[in-house]
Amino acid sequence: MAANLLQKRWGSAGTIITLIESRDIGIIGVGEGSTPQLKAFFDELGIAEAEWMPRCNATYKAGIEFAGWSDRPGYERYFHPFATAVDPFTEPTFFTATALRRRGGDVPAHPDPYFLATRIAREGRAPLAPANFPFDIGYGYHFDAYLVGATLRDFAVASGVRHETATIAEVSLDESGDIASLRSDDGRTFAADLYLDASGFRATLIEGALKEPHRGFGENLFNDSAVVTPTPLPAAGARAMTSATAASAGWIWHIPLTSRAGNGYVYSSRYLDRDDAAAELRRHCGLAEDAEVRHLSMKCGRAERSWVRNCLAIGLAQGFLEPLEATALHIVLATVKGFTAAWEQDDRDGFNAAIARRYEGIRDYIVCHYRTAQRRDTDYWRDATSHDRLSDSLKQLITTWFTGGDLEAEVHRQEIAAYYAPMSWHVMLAGYGNFPPDERARPLPASPVDLDAVERFVHGCALNFPTHAEALSRLSAA
Ligand SMILES: Cc1cc2nc3c(=O)[nH]c(=O)nc-3n(C[C@H](O)[C@H](O)[C@H](O)COP(=O)(O)OP(=O)(O)OC[C@H]3O[C@@H](n4cnc5c(N)ncnc54)[C@H](O)[C@@H]3O)c2cc1C
């Protein structure tokens, strides 16, 4: 991704970009869901969906369904939709409903009926607006990570990026401490003005050679491990959504591709050992006790600074947040874009501060999932829902919600809407049923919330959209 973007931005000015990959080390091979920013990336490079999606077994994604995170009746699952240009017609009613419900009024405040993307995904449709429906519909993708890596490498090479297969064994620094060159295990030397460390969790340049400290997120995000396995596609075919289902010490993703589904259990090794995690994943997926699985360790946190001397860390070398909201590729894009602008304006400190804020902003949203989930059945969930190691920003957001305050204004006041918009915060907090108990809810004499009207509108909008299966077969035929 970085090679493609840099080539597009700087290639025509004569900058030579070389991509080095190691055959011996390989890629991590997970990371199969995206946010809508990946669409903007392909659009910017001028790569049509028909060119890359069939090649990468890709499907559309309208959002993420969270299941089993709350045991409050009626709130067992909810959907975090990607934003659409139709939301302004329903979102204000949803915000009003959640505010009234938080203050004890008996109004329908579960997020699902209010959002078009939710209905599109649940009805097995694709988030592709036809020409007669002139509203932008944000969407992301699911894809095979190996195939996307290879496809993007091929696009990069076709656009002029040089490609080398080599395993870097040594990094030389000059007398000032900058990286002077890299040496491969077969004796070749690679020298450049600028190095991007995209070496994965190894962080060979940023941490290994430049000794930039790593700031861990373990104190409020407990998960440090994953176990993954593929399954055949369900008979109903792929729906345009990721599922994130809570489990005894973490959560399990389900990501449908055109060829198979990817499944993974993200868990905390402090609460569950790897064999029990594998057994729980197999049971969840309906697999035999000896079905093959792959175990991974996750290094959660970020480099203190992403741009150090003549090195920019990117991807897993730069940092990693557990993939609950599938934000890693989105951060790659924000990093490359922010970096090229900062490089041209010589604003290293401003860039590093902005990236740190982005990580912390996304981290807080993920921490909020755990902190406000309504599940207490294991030590893991009792600890995750009760600790007080929250940033000041998150404390203020949660306090605003529970004291019946204006959460939308608070998100804007803190200038964090660029990481998660007010809609996302409302959807999560309402989706877990963070409201006064139902039995104490007071009927309102004249409720301003007409849920039937909202549902008729969302239903009517959804009728315009093709089924997911139709949309995928049109792509393959193109
Ligand atoms: C469990 C899990 C689930 C995830 N889910 C998501 C998700 O749903 N959505 C999302 O956006 N992201 C997700 N991610 C993150 C995503 O996988 C990564 O951001 C993405 O794959 C990019 O990885 P990378 O290129 O930084 O590292 P890697 O894939 O590890 O690639 C590292 C590269 O560096 C090369 N290399 C390493 N050392 C050397 C060396 N010495 N010499 C030469 N080359 C070297 C390797 O050959 C390889 O090409 C997930 C991650 C994990 C762990």
UniProtKB/TrEMBL annotation:
Origin species: Sphingomonas astaxanthinifaciens DSM 22298
Cited InterPro entries: FAD/NAD-bd_sf, Flavin-dep_Halogenase_NPB, Flavin_halogenase, Trp_halogen
A Pfam family assignment: Trp_halogenase
Name of the protein in its database record: Tryptophan halogenase
Domain of life, source organism: Bacteria
